[in-house]
């Protein structure tokens, strides 16, 4: 049987099952998504929507997906989520931290609908949470940064001083220092997830400080454009930002929600879904390191990929002792690995970063 | 040649017919837009205007209209009083934010105390915060002649930054794992502003909006101060001769609209929004300016205009949900609606006459 | 140590979008019109400019298209306020909403592609940065020395008097609104074409609102606009630069400062005018008022 026949026969089966008296489970599972930004943001929301499209691709007629984009966090979120539930969606992904309380509130009113909240910490019988171990990816690009810098100064544009971003800064710094003991980290907070003009200014400020590698935890390509002007390098964030390859974008850290979304939709379809907290990383394909371009020497590329594979295989944890906190106090003993609870509330820099976290 | 002649009186029929005509024109133009974008125009228009009221999930969305419209109506009622007198507060967004912060501050300071006094104290604090933020442009105008339009607008930016500072600093939830944002007031019963009767959507903010409509109607049509305000707007010089002190009116209007905006902020933060974040201002203060003009600065008009805008928001969400209409398309449609409503309004104020050539 | 010259170079680029938008709004307000739609015109320019630069491969064609796009999107506002006598504040807010939506809608095909890089101009600065700086004396000259500028100011100061003298108030104002749109469009395009090299929804991220504040700070003069753009841009650049140098800065409090400074300037100038009864140059007399010629 060739591919075409296979598709035809699958289609025939589908037609038959549709023609047969419809049972509840033969109707497509409706899956809803709430996005904080527009699908066209090229970053955070865009990647979630790619995950939604992957679900459609995977399950075809068995699912039906819808989304509401640009939903402000706060009062409007609760209404938008409720609208999705009322429209018959049985699984709803709420894809921003600020949707946490609204998700919990709506979930209490719709016990037979399953909810998945991204990056939060509140769960219920029908509310699961999921997040990505972005810090694993930061370890890999931190290694590249440490090897590639000539000025030994790495710049980091942070969005907001929250645990997720602080984990990333620490992880990047630890691994940059591992391969280059002279490396220093400069951090600038933009206080925005997406403000191209300000991100460009932040990148320019870092470059003026003598930085020649820029990492970012904000969503626009403005820092890459600035890096290009100055002959520095940077990394794609959230999406691949391949338009800036091979340089200044030498690699990227991609949020890939597709495997998780497919897994969870599959579990609802076969009735095995349970509420749990998922924190997946490179090993699960949720954090992907984008292609490392030819601007990076082959041995550095190999080193970064080896680290990526060791993290992915679970052989190495980016936060492994000995590590001290920035104030000099001991944090992790030799060989000790950070606990997830510690990481999820991380509010300190590791030893070697001289800046202070704004409070 | 045609020319415009101001109407001395607008026939009641026109008052109703012209906004309806504007909405119809928007439907037509919007239908063309949706058609060009490849969506069924009739279905899109129906989803936006009909489904929130009578569609399959109307029992949910109808009360939500009240929730969404309440802050708009509450703020716009106050603004319209000033606009009638020619006093231009365009900084209601800032007064809303400050009211939300001062109101929430009472709750956060009281936490975890229990007591019936907490919520009323928050309302007072929210109104006082908004009032104070509105009094700044009033006093600067009265003392130094500074334009209240510009000062009130500048204070919006200041308020937005205060909100960010609060969310990241003094008001950050100590149990929030380092995430910005205050405690959620919905989870602190003495401070929360819940639905009063289940299924109606009505929280205290809705009650306040209704009261504001009645009170401003009474003020403008029955009270001597309302007469002064209208006189000052129509003929400032004559009003001054009649003993109306402009300074008093400026302080009254900016204080009143500020207090109402501050209360709106408090009701939102204690109710639907739940917490102080850096994005606590979601634009209600600016949208309310549009609502005030769409409602032709009349309390009843404002009530209807607020509900109409809420309808397009909720209908727009439904259109995204059921027809996969992009949010941008809905936004363009709303922009068109405002253009048409503002433009058609001309016909209620002026009549068109042929130019008589001498 | 922070090199002040390098910091100034950063500032020149960083303040260019808001400088353009504010210079445009200055002319509009000098004509007596308050257009709160700057953000909507900037984002339209950002898209129109990016699309043209991408398709032609020439960034300068992009900036021309941005000017055209910004001017065109301002026309509904002009029609509403000048012919249909709608309130300027409400119409301007509607323009912002409309522009943001329209740009998002038509920007879909432009997502993910990259604009051609711009060659640097003299002293390594972008040509558009230089153009912005040149526009300051040009607009100053226009407003203060040219005959048309005199008419425009007259229209803004007292539209009834200007009308009585036989000037076409409406035509002057429509031209000013179109110019304001064009300048805002160029400012927005500087972000998409010169700074980010990509198009993304909402990429102007509130710059139009800053431009409005700058005009107030400027006391309605072109050199004042330059000073304002440098103050507002400067505070951002400086705080980011200090952060990069490892200095701890109270970001929110610092970013509040230029707005407070604007209020103080406005109050000081209003007070001077009020108490000394000088014919000063605070806000134009007819700013924000409807004009309807009864004759």
Automatic annotation (TrEMBL), chain A:
A GO CC annotation given for this chain: plasma membrane
Leader sequence segment: 1-24
Superkingdom, taxonomy of origin: Bacteria
Keywords per UniProt: Signal
Domain ABC transporter substrate-binding protein PnrA-like: 30-304
CDD domains (alphabetical): PBP1_BMP-like (cd19963)
PANTHER family listed in its UniProt record: ABC TRANSPORTER SUBSTRATE-BINDING PROTEIN
Record's protein name: BMP family ABC transporter substrate-binding protein
UniProt organism field: Paracoccus subflavus
Classification of source organism: Bacteria, Pseudomonadati, Pseudomonadota, Alphaproteobacteria, Rhodobacterales
Automatic annotation (TrEMBL), chain B:
Membrane topology: Multi-pass membrane protein
Regions crossing the membrane: 12-37, 69-87, 94-111, 117-140, 149-168, 202-220, 249-270, 276-295, 302-322, 328-347
Chief place where the protein resides: membrane
Molecular function terms from GO: transmembrane transporter activity
Keywords in alphabetical order: Cell membrane, Membrane, Transmembrane, Transmembrane helix
InterPro entries: ABC_transp_permease
GO CC terms, sorted: plasma membrane
Source organism superkingdom: Bacteria
Localization annotation: Cell membrane
Pfam families according to UniProt: BPD_transp_2
Protein name, UniProt field: ABC transporter permease
Protein source organism: Paracoccus subflavus
Native organism taxonomy: Bacteria, Pseudomonadati, Pseudomonadota, Alphaproteobacteria, Rhodobacterales
TrEMBL record, chain C:
Highest taxon of source: Bacteria
Topology versus the membrane: Multi-pass membrane protein
Keyword Transmembrane attributed: yes
Cell compartment(s), UniProt: Cell membrane
Keyword tags: Cell membrane, Membrane, Transmembrane, Transmembrane helix
KW Cell membrane (keyword) present: yes
A GO term, aspect molecular function: transmembrane transporter activity
Pfam family, one: BPD_transp_2
Transmembrane feature ranges: 31-53, 60-83, 89-107, 119-143, 174-197, 209-233, 253-271
Main location per the UniProt record: membrane
Identification of the protein by name: ABC transporter permease
């Amino acid at each position: 049987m060739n591919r075409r026949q296979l598709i035809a026969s699958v289609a025939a089966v589908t037609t038959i099952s549709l023609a047969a008296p419809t049972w509840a489970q033969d109707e497509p599972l409706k899956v809803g998504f709430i996005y904080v930004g527009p699908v066209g943001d090229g970053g955070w929301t865009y990647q979630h929507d790619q995950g939604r499209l992957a679900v459609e691709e995977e399950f075809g007629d068995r699912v039906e997906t819808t989304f509401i984009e640009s939903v402000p966090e706060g009062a409007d979120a609760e209404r938008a989520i409720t609208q999705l539930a009322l429209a018959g969606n049985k699984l709803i992904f709420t894809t921003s931290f600020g949707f946490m309380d609204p998700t919990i509130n709506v979930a209490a009113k719709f016990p037979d609908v399953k909810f998945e909240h991204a990056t939060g910490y509140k769960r219920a019988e029908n509310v699961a949470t999921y997040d990505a171990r972005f810090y694993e990816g930061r370890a890999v690009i931190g290694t590249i940064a440490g090897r590639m810098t000539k000025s030994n100064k790495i710049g980091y544009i942070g969005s907001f001083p929250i645990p997720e971003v602080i984990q990333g800064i620490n992880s990047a710094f630890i691994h940059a220092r591992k391969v280059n003991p002279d490396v220093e980290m400069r951090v600038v907070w933009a206080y925005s997830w997406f403000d191209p003009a300000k991100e460009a200014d932040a990148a320019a400020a870092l470059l003026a400080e003598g930085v020649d590698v820029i990492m970012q935890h904000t969503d626009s390509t403005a820092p890459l454009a600035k890096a290009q002007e100055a002959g520095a390098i940077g990394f794609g964030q959230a999406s691949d930002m391949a338009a800036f390859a091979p340089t200044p974008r030498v690699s990227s850290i991609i949020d890939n929600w597709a495997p998780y979304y497919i897994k969870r939709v599959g579990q609802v379809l076969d009735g095995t879904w349970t509420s749990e907290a998922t924190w997946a990383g490179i090993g699960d394909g949720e954090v992907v390191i984008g292609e490392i371009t030819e601007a990076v020497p082959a041995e550095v590329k190999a080193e970064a990929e080896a680290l990526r594979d060791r993290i992915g295989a679970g052989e190495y944890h980016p936060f492994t002792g000995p590590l001290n906190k920035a104030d000099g106090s001991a944090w992790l003993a030799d060989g000790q690995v950070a606990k997830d609870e510690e990481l999820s509330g991380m509010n300190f820099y590791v030893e070697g970063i001289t800046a202070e976290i704004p409070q | 040649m045609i020319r415009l002649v101001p109407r001395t009186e607008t026939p009641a029929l026109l008052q109703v017919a012209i906004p309806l005509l504007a909405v119809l024109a928007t439907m037509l133009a919007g239908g063309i837009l949706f058609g060009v974008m490849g969506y069924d125009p009739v279905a899109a228009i129906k989803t936006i205007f009909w489904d929130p009221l009578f569609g399959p999930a109307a029992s949910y969305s109808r009360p939500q209209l009240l929730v969404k419209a309440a802050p708009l109506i509450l703020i716009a009622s106050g603004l319209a009083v000033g606009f009638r007198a020619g006093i231009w507060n365009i900084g209601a967004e800032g007064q809303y934010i400050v009211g939300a912060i001062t109101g929430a501050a009472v709750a956060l300071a009281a936490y975890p105390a229990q007591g019936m006094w907490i919520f009323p104290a928050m309302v007072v604090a929210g109104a006082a915060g908004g009032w104070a933020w509105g009094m700044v442009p009033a006093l600067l105008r009265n003392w130094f002649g500074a334009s209240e339009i510009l000062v009130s607008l500048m204070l919006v930016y200041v308020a937005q930054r205060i909100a960010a500072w609060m969310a990241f600093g003094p008001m950050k939830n100590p149990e929030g794992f380092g995430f910005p944002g205050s405690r959620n007031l919905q989870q602190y019963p003495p401070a929360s502003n819940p639905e009063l009767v289940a299924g109606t959507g009505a929280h205290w903010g809705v009650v306040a909006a209704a009261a504001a409509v009645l009170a401003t109607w009474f003020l403008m049509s029955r009270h001597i101060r309302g007469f002064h305000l209208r006189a000052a707007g129509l003929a400032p010089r004559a009003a001054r001769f009649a003993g109306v002190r402009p300074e008093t009116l400026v302080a009254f209007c900016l204080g009143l609209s500020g207090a109402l905006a501050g209360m709106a902020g408090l009701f939102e933060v204690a109710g639907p929004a739940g917490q102080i974040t850096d994005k606590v201002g979601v634009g209600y203060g600016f949208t309310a300016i549009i609502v005030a003009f769409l409602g032709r600065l009349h309390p009843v008009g404002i009530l209807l205009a607020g509900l109409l805008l809420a309808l397009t928001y909720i209908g727009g969400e439904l259109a995204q949900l059921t027809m996969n209409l992009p949010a941008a398309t809905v936004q363009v449609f709303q922009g068109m609606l405002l253009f048409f409503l503002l433009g058609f309004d001309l016909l209620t104020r002026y009549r068109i006459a042929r130019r008589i050539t001498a | 140590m922070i090199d002040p010259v390098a910091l100034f170079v950063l500032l020149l680029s960083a303040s260019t979008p808001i400088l353009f938008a504010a210079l445009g709004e200055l002319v509009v307000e000098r004509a007596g019109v308050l257009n709160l739609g700057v953000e909507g015109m900037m984002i339209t320019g950002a898209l129109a400019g990016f699309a043209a630069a991408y398709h032609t491969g020439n960034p300068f064609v992009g900036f021309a298209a941005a000017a055209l796009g910004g001017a065109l999107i301002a026309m509904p506002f002009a029609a509403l306020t000048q012919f249909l006598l709608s309130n300027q504040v409400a119409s301007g807010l509607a323009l912002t909403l409309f522009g943001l939506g329209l740009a998002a809608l038509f920007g879909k095909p432009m997502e993910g592609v990259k604009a051609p890089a711009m060659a640097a101009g003299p002293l390594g600065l972008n040509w558009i940065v230089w153009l912005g700086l040149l526009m300051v004396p040009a607009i100053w000259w226009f407003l203060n020395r040219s005959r048309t500028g005199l008419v425009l100011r007259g229209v803004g100061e007292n539209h009834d008097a200007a009308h009585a003298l036989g000037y076409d108030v409406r035509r002057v104002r429509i031209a000013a609104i179109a110019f304001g749109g064009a300048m805002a469009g160029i400012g927005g395009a500087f972000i998409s074409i010169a700074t980010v090299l990509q198009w993304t929804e909402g990429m102007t991220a509130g710059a139009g609102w800053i431009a409005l504040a700058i005009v107030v700070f400027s006391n309605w003069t072109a050199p004042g606009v330059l000073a304002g753009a440098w103050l507002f841009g400067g505070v951002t650049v400086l705080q980011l630069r200090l952060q990069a140098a490892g200095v701890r800065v109270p970001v929110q409090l610092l970013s509040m400062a230029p707005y407070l400074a604007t209020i103080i300037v406005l109050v000081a100038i209003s007070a001077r005018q009020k108490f000394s009864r000088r014919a000063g140059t605070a806000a134009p007399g007819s700013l924000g008022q409807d004009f309807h010629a009864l004759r």
